[in-house]
Amino acid sequence: MSRTLTAPTAPTAPVAGHSRAWAVLRPAAARLGTALLVLLCTATVVFFLVRLSGDPVKVMLPPDATAQQESVLRHNLGLDRPLVTQYLDYLWGLPRFDFGNSLFYNQPVRAVLADRIPATLLLAAGALVVTLVIALPAGTIAAMRRGKAAGRGVITAVLIGQSTPAFWVGILLILVFAVGLHALPASGYGTFAHLVLPSITLAVYSVAVVARLLRSSLIDVLGSDHIRTARARGLGPVRTVLRHGMRNASLPVVTVVGLEVGSLLGGAILTEQVFSWPGVGQLTVQAIANRDFPLVQGTVLLFAATFVVVNLLVDLSYGLLDPRVRNSR
Question: What is the pTM of this model?
Answer without folding.
Answer: 0.77
